[in-house]
Amino acid sequence: MTNAEIAATFEQVADLLEYQGGNVFRVRAYRNAARTIDGMVESLAAVRDDSGRSLTDLEGVGSDLAEKIGTLLDTGGLPLLTDLQKAVPAVVFQLMRVPGLGPKKVKLLVDQLGIDSLDALEKACRDGQVAGVKGFGAKTQAAILGNIAFAKDPEHARLLWQEADAIVQDVLVWMRGCPQVRRIEGAGSWRRGRETVGDLDFVVDSDDSVAVMDRLHAWNETSAVLLRGETKTSVRGPRGVQIDLRVVEHDSFGAALQYFTGSKEHNVRLRSLARDRGLTINEYGVFTLGSEAEGDTKPSKRALVAGATEQDVYGAVGLPWVPPELREARDEIKEAERGTLPALVELADLRGDLHMHTTATDGEDTLAEMVRAAIARGLHYIAITDHGQRVTMARGLDKGRLLKQWDDIDRLNESLAEEGSPPIVVLKGIEVDMLEKGGLDLPDDVLGKADWVVASLHYGQNQPREQITARIIEAIENPHVSVIGHPTGRLLNRRPPYDVDIEAVIAAAARTGTFLEINANPWRLDLNEHHAAAAKKAGVKIVISTDAHSTRGLDMMRCGVLQARRAGLEASDVANTRTLAGLRKLMKR
């Protein structure tokens, strides 16, 4: 089993244990182990097979969980999960797809109302039965009713970050038109730059929560109001996404923004650090420990230590501000304590884009149009990397057509330099395909004339792990290959990555000086953050490229930069932050 499969198994065990009312520490142990495993690049099998190491060396993995990992590796199954699945009604898994329904609430609905389907849940909501269950109420019932259609519709998968960002920007523009809004910011997984986003969170600084919530309700994209309280409202927005908005006072804005940005695990660790200093943190601010009145989540302002800004919140516990992209309970707290937080790469650091297509293959815009668009975006150099001949569905280039394109690029560069220093340099590139039986789809004598060669795998993605890995490593070892494009081949919400030994790929890239790509296409974002972080640790340089198939596609670079930031990459870790001369010095030939 892969690490991802084992992590998913442990998450499912945690859900079922929580449904059964299992020990909270046992549930948490499975969730923590799942998070650790999901973030690993090295395979659990490799850790187990290393005589000098133990699975119990992994954070959150004790002897019991190590034994279960061994069982999963050896058999592909876990008896505990099988037993839990037999003991829990099948409808539980359907009900937990409804936003806002976790294992505990689902159990109450099944036990007290006999809910056995999403349709039955919908009827119970319409009949007012759910509101009568302890811990629910009319507002929760209305929210569940509004979310059932969302859970039933397969089109309502998590949004890509870019899709979520478009909605966020629209909300910000609309809400900033409200005079009572002093400040509004997006929070949650969108702000942390997660690859996909479930719902959207906003925090508003205002003294008039009624006017602020009325403004959101009046937005022409609001299709339903799911919940309204004194300081919080939830609405259904474009594409059925749930939008949660919270209004806080000025002195609490930074604390609320930090709290609702998350992640949950990061906040838990931050609160633990605060307790060690005699403080407590919640969405209202940082307070002296014990200042809360019994049952009061908003202590007196006299006990307020910090809260107006996020910098104040982190500073109150002795830390520098932590960038949102790093707040995933990995090493960011320790790095902040040591003063070693990375200076994360920024979009402005990128000087070139080294993967794009034109109308010569499957692009929408011509060579000249792509160059003009790149100049308009301030790029210093680009590589034109149309497909090689294997990708017949994209009218891939054979040797003759490719050499003609390169002649065109030479003439274009000459014309750009006619009046002195050119505004941009266009590199003669190609995206060659790794063939199913090995080798590349264009010969070395052609590739040797290129300025830049991207090698990608588009066919034979269901081959065995060893074969796919061998194909990629063969390409890495080719002296003419500059970078491996979208190294795991995944498409978010559409296609899983192919089965590849990414640890071996990273090791080969480190050995040969080959770059690995973060493909900024929002459907790809490949490498993922864990793999990109592992590449950095191994000394492999990353190239962030758009894989643009149109001039519009050049704007997706920001998605790739966001992915790099989540991996903790600095400008020095990214090859195309260099000048063209600096990039050429890094290249292996």
In short:
By secondary structure, the chain is of the alpha/beta class.
Write the CATH homologous superfamily of the largest domain.
Metal-dependent hydrolases
Total domain modules: 4
Low-confidence stretches: none
Count of DSSP H/I helices:
24
Mean of residue pLDDT?
93
What is the CATH topology assignment of the largest domain?
A: TIM Barrel
Shape: globular
Structural Rg: 26 Å
Describe the structure.
- The two termini are 38 Å apart.
- The strands form four sheets. This protein has a seven-stranded parallel beta sheet with strand order 11-12-13-14-15-16-17. Strands 2-4-7-6-5 form a five-stranded mixed beta sheet, with helices on both faces. It has a three-stranded antiparallel beta sheet with strand order 8-9-10.
- It has 589 residues and is an alpha/beta fold.
- Helix 20 runs parallel beside helix 21.
- The chain has four domains: 3-152, DNA polymerase, domain 1 (Orthogonal Bundle), CATH 1.10.150; 159-248, Beta Polymerase, domain 2; 252-338, DNA polymerase, thumb domain (Beta Polymerase, domain 3, 2-Layer Sandwich), CATH 3.30.210.10; 347-586, TIM Barrel (Alpha-Beta Barrel), CATH 3.20.20.
